[in-house]
Amino acid sequence: MPVESRGEPASASVGKKRMSESKKAWLRKAVWAGAVIAVAALAGFYLLKSDEDHRGIAGANGRIEAVEIDVAAKSPGRIKAILANEGDFVTAGQVVAQMDTDVLQAQLRQAEAQQRQAEAAIETAQSRLVQRESEKAAAQAVVVQRQAELEAARKRSARTTALAREGAGSQQEADDDRARVQSYEAAVVAAQAQVAAAEAAIATARSDLIGARSAVEAASATCERIQADIDDSNLKAPRDGRVQYRVAQPGEVVGAGGRVLNLVDLNDVYMTFFMPTAVAGRLSMGSEVRLVVDVAPQYVFPAHVSFVSDVAQFTPRTVETASEREKLMFRIRARVPAELLQRYAMQVKTGLPGMAYVRLDPRVEWPAHLEVKLPQ
Q1: What is the pLDDT of residues 80-114, one digit of tens each?
Q2: What does the pLDDT look like over 262-289, one tens digit per residue?
Q3: Distance between CA 93 and CA 237 in Å, rounded?
Q4: Which residues of 102-132 are buried (b: 16+ CB within 10 A; e: fewer)?
Q5: Strand partners, 182
Q6: Of 18, 97, 116, 184, which is most buried, counting CB atoms within 10 Å of its CB?
Q7: Across the strands, what pairs with 354?
Q8: CATH 2.40.50.100 spans which residues of the chain?
């Protein structure tokens, strides 16, 4: 029979003892692992400081990258053809894809017809203007004629009135001449009104001519816009580069800004890596860098620092001590010279991992294994 102590079973006492021993063992392992990590961190820090003090060179892992460019459709439509395959090298301005332009071609023909119609309206408006100017000239001639007739009638009326007053002429004739004068005065007013109407018609004809010319300009602008859309339907490579992958295929419909191809600009290749505060703080723009890719460790490529982040990455929650500030990591970019990229354009590949070495002290010479070694 198991022995009981103060009402507690003996089996429960044994279980608690085993749990206590396992907990102590776990704590011993955790303390041991923490000590190992601390020692390794101190050793790594010492090696880094020792490396900097002796050689002035620091290294970090990175990956070869390049600027990516999307070739996209300006307007929505259907892809007619893709003229470049994945991996092909293309030059700036080369047509790499074509969009279907049947609708745009129809719109262009319609706009051209409207332009011809507007040009014909200009000729009609010009003819109408000439006609209105001729009508004005005729009306002005009628005014001159009526004024001459009025002047003659006034002189005749004056003579017959004088003769009738002296009894040498008929009073009826004098009255008829005065009536004739009034009739000619009315005819002059009517002729002058015809001149004013002709001037108004000329102004209207000129406005019609200006409107016809504006319609021609609008139709021409519409044709140019549609032609520009047709030209933009030939998707061109904005830079020299290599086709990385197709985003869409012929026959697919894409929206405005829809991507068709993705290119990498092989004239802008760089490696991105991270350095701690102690190293990043000593770098400057243009500092020399040596790049070594894992697939070809026998070669060393030159580069220079083209970017240092002004914001730390991997920042801890609090930065209160000097040791915590050492944990701040800054993103750095080392750019490969353009002339070197042009020389080895066929061999450049993005995504390759490697090492980037920076020289913190320009007075320190590069070691032999980091001297520039390029493929032949």
Answers
A1: 999 999 989 999 999 999 999 999 999 999 999 99
A2: 999 888 899 999 888 888 888 888 888 9
A3: 5
A4: eebeebbeebbebbeebeebbeebbebbeeb
A5: none
A6: 97
A7: 62, 293
A8: 70-100+234-254
Angle of CA points 178, 184, 188, to nearest 5°: 145
CA 256 to the chain's CA centroid: 13
What is the spatial distance between Cα 249 and Cα 260, in angstroms, rounded to a whole number?
8
Segment holding 165, helix H or strand E: helix 102-166
CB–CB of 61/214 below 8 Å? no
Name the 3-class secondary structure at 159: helix
- The token duo for 42 is 């101190």
CA 12/CA 10 separation, integer angstroms:
5
Nearest to 356 by CA among 372, 374, 373, 334: 334
Which tokens hold the place of 291? 């790049």
CATH number of the structural domain 70-100+234-254:
2.40.50.100
In this structure, which amino acid lies at residue 178?
Answer: R
pTM for the full model?
0.59
Residue 361 in tokens: 């002290």
290/305 Cα distance (integer angstroms): 10
